[in-house]
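Narrative progress, year one. The postdoctoral researcher (J.K.) led the effort to move from monomer predictions toward full complexes, under supervision of the PI. The following entry was the first complex the group processed end to end, covering 789 residues in total.
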Amino acid sequence: MTNAVETNDRMATAAPGDELANARGEASGTARTTSSGATTSSCRSADHLDLLESHAVFVMREVAAESERPVLLFSGGKDSAVLLHLAAKAFRPGGFPFPVMHIDTGHNFSEVLEFRDRRIAELGERLLVAKVQDSIDRGRVLDPGPGASRNRLQTATLLDAIAEHSFDACIGGARRDEDKARAKERVLSFRNAFGQWDPKRQRPELWQLYQGRVQAGEQVRAFPLSDWTELDIWQYVLREELELPSIYFSHRREVVARDGMLLAVSEWVQPGEGEEVTEETVRFRTVGDATCTGAVRSKASTVAQVIAEVAASRISERGATRADDRFSETAMEDRKRQGYF
Amino acid sequence: MPAPERTQTPCGAVEHATAAPMDLLRFASVGSVDDGKSTLIGRLLFDTRQLFEDQIEAVAAASERRGVGDVDLAFVTDGLRAEREQGITIDVAYRYAATPRRKFIIADCPGHVQYTRNMATGASTADLALLVVDATVGLREQTRRHACIAALLGVDQFVVCANKMDLVDWDEGTFGKVASEISSLTRRLGVSSTTVIPTSALFGDYVVEPSDAAPWYQGPTVLGALESAPAGRWAAVHGRHRGAASRLPVQWVLRQPGGGRSYAGMVNGGTLRRGDRIVVLPEGRESTVALIETYDGPLPEAPVGMSVSVHLADDLDVSRGDLISSADDPPRVVDELEATVCWFGERELRAGERLQIKHTTRVTPVIVEDVRARLDVNALRLDPVEELRDNDIGVVRLKTATPLAVDLYHQDRITGSFVLVEEATHATVAAGMVGEPELVDGEKHGRS
């Protein structure tokens, strides 16, 4: 902003992405100089992150405008934290044109619930909580037992909540780099009246013409972060100085090794026969049902350290931390066909 | 060499994370079924060390289970159960890669004619087409169809793999024939840059690493060509110069505390500046840009691709579906238009058909006044027809219920594009581009 002439000159020769980056740098120069470490990093990858951000904001505005009753799904993880921030970018100074909904498995990390409630309060938005426990109590799904994962049960709870509130569009933080089935999904993913995804009959989705029209009972799932990678998320967290639940950063924790993963010892995860509880320095790379979300050994205690760790990782995010994806070759596809996020 | 080793050194992303600014190239793999697109993408990802260990293990396990050799690299992107059963790609897989040179968003598209709509989906946002041709066969009709669709969508850089060269003993004559056929096709389609590379996706020659298999070939590898191609071509529009007229389709009206409104949307066409004289279309009322606002504060100007909100100096009635345009060089406001469409409907498209059109942020009913011509993808000629069938490319004339502010597609990808939607099912049945196909040395008109 200090030198408009120079900006013009640069824009005359830069590619569109660079243009965008330059303009953003200009706009936010004052705001961002407060974060000494972040400033250089944000400049480096600014073009790519700016394009991703602008596209995600575009998608949210389209979905909000084209659907009757949208909802934003929030899990308390890093992707949904980014999603909340992008919703603020899309709709401030107004309120969000949708409520925020958490599908609560009941197997939560307390740090995540605390983060959820604080963030929603700061934003002044409306939070709905749909509990898997209620689905169990109503007999909709069978309780798999105190120590078993409730991740798959979330589908029933989600579909019931969608029906109860007549939601026709669910905005979620899923990314295509997470899984080979997600890699195939549209930004606006059409679901039938049973919430099912049919990967053989997806709608054509050309340019940025997101077409979210559905008939009564049908829905779309909208994924504004489709083209973001795990690394992009972290670089964006750094650049925007976003807060995340503390379990994303290195801490000491009692764990048991199970199925090749380190599970946090909790009310629901107790050492079985022959299992040993050890205290390790760990962090969580994803946040989900506490009974199936593994911790990784890590000394990364700042966002910059996490970025370095993620960049050097040789194991994918879900491969390292999610037991539920190890059931079969197409675990995610099968869950999505049943109505999963 | 036939099967990739399963252990890899850590990917080079560490350096990438701290390297100089990177640009982003979006490319789509296109071409006929079974010519090796997915294997090539798998090879590209494997040899550039983009795959995680658990992903490689999963691909190896799936390959073993299905008895398709040691490691079938096509399984890297063919992740659906049905795809692995049939050994084909059904829908686009998006993969993300980074080399020290740049970031890539890769759309691995299906080649099967039945899934042409999915290929068009993948190619519609691409800066570059990676066209894969089976050198032992040459150009098939589906190869030509994909090249046509990609070129019509405005993809004007092609990197072409004459693939399976190992099966013809790296015969220079075979390569030369494919290269000349392809070059003649892309030239007629108006593609500005075509690089043809002899490859074996199966063995990896000339994909990431050079090889001594074809001593007569001196050109780049596939990765080399992808790294040196200009990025951001998708957003850069043809026929417009920088500083060109700006367009902002209104997505959402933001009400400001204390009164007033701002209009949210993504800038395209050219940079939007504070103080610009604008016109709100289709109504045509003029005003001035009083303020360009973002969450992070106001901006003196907003470049193409940026999501912003705009305050106008005058209190006009502006709502979603309207288009804010520079008052100089605005789009045409029409309620009848000639367009090239890729038809994806299960029924035939005929004159009299009633559909919905989604153009920028406006949705309005439309009647197909006339189906004028169909593109013969082999002869690259427009033939007069009465109807379009599934996966046909044709020229139609549409009448819209409310006026639209349009540019020709080859001048502006956003204001020049639309989709057609079936009223009863809400299915997307066509991709449309304002204007006729531009063919070099070809007949332009079907019916006179």
